[in-house]
Amino acid sequence: MSMLTPPGMGGKYRIKGNKHPRMRRPRRRGRLVVLTVASVVVLGVGGWGTLQLIDVFTGGGKKASAAGDGTDCGTTTKASPSPSAKPLPQPRTITVNVLNATTRGGLAKKTADELKKRGFKIGDVGNATEQYDKKVKGTGLLLGPAAALDTSLPVLGTQLPGAERRTEAARKGAAVDLVIGDGFKELAKKPDADRALTKLATPEPAPTTKKGC
Question: Region entry Disordered: which residue ranges (predicted)?
C-alpha cells in the first residue's frame, strides 16, 4: 500500500498524479428524521392554536339566531292584567244625591238632570247641609260610605274630575253625595266622561319583569 493511500482505503485506490479523490460524507438519516418529526409537531401545534382562536372569536362554531336557543340570559318584561280588588258598579246601580253648597241657584237640579241622562240613579236634590254649605271651595265633594271608596266614588268621579273624595265611617246605605262647590262650572263633557269610564273599567296591564338565569 502506498504511503499516499488514505487510511481505511484498504489499498483499493491508488493515488496517481496530483489530484485526490473526492470523499462523500455519510448521509445522516437520523438527523433528517428528527427534523421531519419536529416540523410535523410544530405545524400541528400551530394549527391547533389557530383553531382555538377561531373558536374564541366565532363562539365555538355555534350559529347565532335572532330568536335564540333558549339559553340566553336577560330580562323579560311581560304585561300582566292588574286585578281590581272589587268589580266596579255600573252607573245605573249608583244612587247619587246632588246637593248645592254654593249661592248659585238651580245648580243641583241641572246637574242631577244631566247625571240622569248619563245613566245614574238620582236620589235627593237640594241644598247642602250646614256642615258643607258654602264651605266647599273646589269643584265639588264626593261623599259616601267606606265601601264606596274604591267602587261608586271612582265611577262618579269620572263625571266631575278633580272633585275631592271622602268617606264617612258611620254612614249607612250605598247612596253617595255629589256636593257642588264654588269652583264648579259643569260636569265633564260626556265623551270625556265615557272614555274615563272605559279606562277605569279596563285598566292597562301592569308590566312585570322576569330575569333569566
Answer: 1-26, 65-90
Backbone torsions φ then ψ of 193, nearest 5 degrees: -65, -40
Residue 124 parent element (H or E): strand 121-127
Helix (H) or strand (E) holding 98: strand 95-100
pTM beyond 0.70: the answer is: no
Measure the N-to-C terminal CA separation of the chain; round to a whole number of Å: 94
pLDDT in tens, 113-136: 999 999 999 999 999 999 999 999
| Alpha-carbon separation of residue 144 from 58, 94, 110, 130, 186 (angstroms) | 68, 11, 21, 17, 21
* pLDDT tens, position by position, 4-50: 545 555 555 455 555 555 555 555 555 655 566 566 555 555 555 55
**DSSP assignments along 123-141, one per residue:** EEEEEPPTTTTTT--SSEE
Q: What is the mean pLDDT of residues 94-99?
A: 98
Task: Quote the cell numbers at residue 180.
Answer: 257642588
Residues 116, 194 contacting (CB under 8 angstroms): no
Count other C-beta atoms under 10 Å from residue 114's C-beta.
Answer: 15
